[in-house]
Fold this sequence. Notes:
The protein has 559 residues and is mostly helical.
Amino acid sequence: MSPRLGARPRTLLALASTAVALAAADTYVVVLALTDMMAGVGLGLDNLQRAAPIISGFLLGYVAVLPLIGRLADLIPRSRILLGCLVVFVVGSGVTALAVDLDVLVAGRVVQGVGGGGLVPATLALVADLWPPGRRGMPLGIVGAVQELGSVLGPLLGAAVLVVADWRAIFWLNVVLGVLLFIAIAAVAGERRRPPFAPTVLGIVAIGLLWLTLAAPAALATDVVLGLPFVPITGDGRVLTPIGVVTAVLLLVLVVITRDRWWPPLRVSDLPGALLLGTALGCIILTFASADPETEVVGPLGYALLPVAVTSAALYVWRHRRAENPLVPRGTVRGRTPWALVVSFLVGVALVAVVVDVPLFSRLTTGGSQTEAAMQLVKFLLAVPVGALVGGWILRWVGDGLSAGIGLVLGTVGLFVMSGWERGSLEEVSATVTLALVGFGLGMALAPVNDAALADSPQDAHGTASSLVVVARMVGMVVGLALLTGVGLHRYYQAVAAMTPEQQTDGQALLDAALLQVHTVFLGAAGASLLGAAVALALLGLRRREGSGALARGFGVEE
């Protein structure tokens, strides 16, 4: 019998989706504030390469622990995973806001990414719990839409805050919103259990000391007596101080006395496998995300990290075959799920090509500012969540493969048109239509791939399956950008090498070669989108699947 869904699951989905949007916004919220953040930790504009971890650190935390958090979401009630991830996100935001050293700032961003990334699989698995197969399309579309909407709102939110305050206010706003969402989700999900007294008090004290350590209030730090705990033991940072050491000890004690709460699910979730897979993903992210997409394919440490990634991945496969309870439960990647992961990967390739190369194309052809280039990208980004909603909505009548396939065919057409753009193309109305078409089409594929993976994976592995879909798309973005850029750069250098000496000093000839690179990236993205459409149409199903599923345990939804 189908469940009668009242306001409660919808309210919970709305709150969880808002948390996902908040975390997604943080991926891009630093775009406009990056130079101010660099100045806040003592870096000048000539140290831009050293600031790359401020962005890649968040992405690293977001992706590397996704499989582990997805698995934990299968072992622990989804609401507690959501609440736990919000706590981690809030702590990371607070650390980032207080940072005066680059290492602390990057650490805060990594912690933010861990908490923010974990919200996505928990929310997707929650949809699978609360809505049966055949009725998940629209809820999954909502989650996909708000996640992509966050990428649009992130830079706008950062810009709005910077008008009235400094960059630190961006992250304090995260703290406030995260706390409010924590309270609301706890109330709606019925998490009213009284927390244990001693760990709660110790946690509050530790957080208070962490704030004192990083903030180092002048009234205390400059006092002859009260300032002694803030005197650095070595160097001139704020962490290696007496109060910092006490804070670290208290946090360690808190970890030890609460081990009975967190260790059992970690042990069952295959922590060694999570470390191996997380290492492989982390190395891939750092290899490609740290590269300058306009000049290089592999980042500075890539040639050292890629062998580590391959070794870790091979060891994970060995571990998966022999572990009694592997990180990715056996039978999770079955049926349509592996093909859904392939499509998700290809969607990531197409998405990142537009996100990176549309602003580049704008700067090359119009000579406008970075802000004007970003406004061209907004035309694409606003269409993605609309496509996600439509892609989920039509799953009421059609199959996952048809919904995703139609969207990716639209994306392919638009990307192919973009591969032929000329210098004045962005000034035409057709360019806006094309960008919107590509965004809408790629957005349509988001809900169907999640729906297919959830429908064909066991109910007790929905969190894991959801995390794998997200990981596939994120890896597709970083690897796809590197590969497409590499091919584009190769064609660029070929074109320059074929020029006469006079042409090599001609700005217009060099511009044509640069446009050839961008066209190559768009054409490669069109190929990825077309391949994704073919896989979706052939293997994800053209007809709607009927079915009913169990509801979430502990959410009080009647059947």
